[in-house]
Amino acid sequence: MGTSGKLHNSLMEILVVVGMDQHTGLVPENLPVQSEKLPGSLPLFTTAFEPQVLAACAHEVANFPNSSSIFDSMASYSTSTWSSTIPPSPARGVSSSIPPSSAKGGKTRRSQSLRRLTPTGKHSVALPVGSDVISSLPPLCLPGNAYVYKDRPKDHVHYLVLTDISGAHSYATVYTFYRKFLASQVRGKSEYTIRAVPLSDAGEEGTKTCFVPLCCCMVSRAPYFFTMRDCLTCLVQQLHKDVRTMEMVVAEFSSNLALVPCPPPGQLAISFQLNRFLVTVPPAMDPDRRVLDMPLHYPFLSFSTDAILTLVACILTEQRIVFLASDYALLTIVMESLLTYVQPFVWHNVYVPVLSNSMVDLVEAPGVFMMGCHVSHREKIIKVPGIVVADIQSGEVFMADSIFDNSELPRFPRAAAEFFKEKCSTMKFQYDFSYLHSPTPTSVEEARKHREAWQQELSRDIQVAFLQTMVKLFRDVKEYVSTVNHRRYLNKDKFLAAQEDVDQPFFREVCQSHMFKRFLQDRMDQKRDYYSIMEETMQWQGEEKAEIPDNKIIRRRKISANSPGQKNRRSGVVNFGLEVNGPTFTFQLPTFTQAHRKADKANPVHFYESCIQKLTNYLENCEPSMRAPYLYLRGMLHAAEGSSMIALEDFHNLCSVDVKLFPAE
């Protein structure tokens, strides 16, 4: 057996802790080094301070760049030292889509400390995310600047999307809470030192009690925003109760979460226990669709149906769009929902859902983008010409620098708009209205299940309505595809001429977009996906009655689509990634404290072995439709524990059951 490595399909890529503590002190934001010795008296509760990276933990690495000593609570953790420069990371070559904050000018204390963020030494283990991304996280974790408070603010959560140099996204959930410290100003400087409040809670003369923000940022390759929120809630509860140091609790948490695999697309969910709380990781319901663990109705609570269709038109025509909100948590969720609405079209342009206060100037950059910032910057944003502004707070959608003339906004085709509005007329976007007629749930668990069922059904209805609308807009594209010299191309002139005169500007802009080119290529390749199946369904059943087709019909159409004599080897049925009522199986992971340790020593191999044994038992008696996801999971775990040949055997068997689940990397 080989040595254990990182689980390729791990739920958590890295956990980063950002904030200020007794090791960093409180350093005013953008304070030049040459002015640090000048006397000054900056007010404690109105000064923005520099947040810093306090921890970066992943798999077998636990790094704390600002601690006074190297932390090594487990034998499997890296005991690396810190270099004074940041070389390129060999792990993923990831870079943030946001320029480093040190580029703002002026050498700051924060930029000095962050340059120690790369481990060196013969025992170093590389972090899975580039050090430049880690260094860019502080302003994104505290986008409204880092202040300390006289009274403890409420904990809050917001969400981020990070982009690497290849355009691939990573997704993050940030949980911000506040710890109590005693602050005293350094004599002759503008900085403050802070230390934990003693049990007596009696501050010394010249000290002030303050609450300092601490952000726990969990990063994943998949958009598990709400699942990560559940995990971080458990972590923060543990930090409040645990008598151990913050470093030890964070290291153990990241060690455990790095062992949790993401489920493959299909009907198999994965669950695990965190501090007696059951966390469930849902699967993507189809390989062609991304994971969805959040409700999709939030845009409908802020915007009218007409405004939502205008935003969809802006996305399809690749406009420069900026979203405004008073709550940073709304920005990413609303924008992610809109990008889900336009599937199978995929946004490949610049995408930064949350801009910190120091990054707002990026909205003046050229090119196509989707960005989000706090509503307090509205006056600045609306002065930038050519930007579509979507104010989540007020529900307005307008063209910046032309508030009184929105004729430049793309116009969603009238017939498709009426079709979509008819579909939405029966949807209930308010939970309280939907359940006024229902008896009161008798337990918290029953109430939670009621709400989850309502959210799942509503999200399904929204996805179906938008998918049908996309089909109505673009189903005749294939009729204008011609073949010349064995090459297929779209006759755009004929396609545009076939549209209503008033709709032609919209379709002309869409045809010029990169999103449409990829969509067109899939149609010309006769790609068999949820869009093509919905297209067929609307032809069979009619537009008004088209819903998710019956499984038997899908299976029959799937078989008939194969070449003559070719056996349909897919054990399951084709779906849209929209079903919510079908059977879903849950694979519960072993308890971390039992399976992760043997002889008081942490070893991920022991955890992998326990999971593999459970999966092997399930494979002996599972339903045929569940064989593929079980093989996928077991193969991934075999690869992580170092049994490469056994993993290849599982993946070989997976190909004969469901080739779509075969790992692409």
Task: Please give a handful of descriptors for the protein shown.
Rossmann fold; 665 residues; alpha+beta; 20 helices
Task: Describe what this molecule looks like in 3D.
The protein has 665 residues and is an alpha+beta fold. It has four domains: 14-260, no CATH class; 262-281 and 571-665, no CATH class; 298-417, DENN domain, C-terminal lobe (Rossmann fold, 3-Layer(aba) Sandwich), CATH 3.40.50; 431-561, no CATH class. Helices cover 34% and strands 17% of the residues. The chain contains 20 helices and 21 strands. The strands form six sheets. Strands 1, 2, 3, 6, 7, 8 and 9 form a seven-stranded antiparallel beta sheet that branches. Strands 13-14-12-15-16 form a five-stranded mixed beta sheet, covered by helices on one side. β17 (481-484) and β18 form a beta hairpin. α18 (604-621) packs antiparallel against α19 and α19 (627-641) runs antiparallel to α20 (644-657). The longest helix has 31 residues, at 444-474. The protein is globular and about 80 Å long. The relative contact order is 0.11.
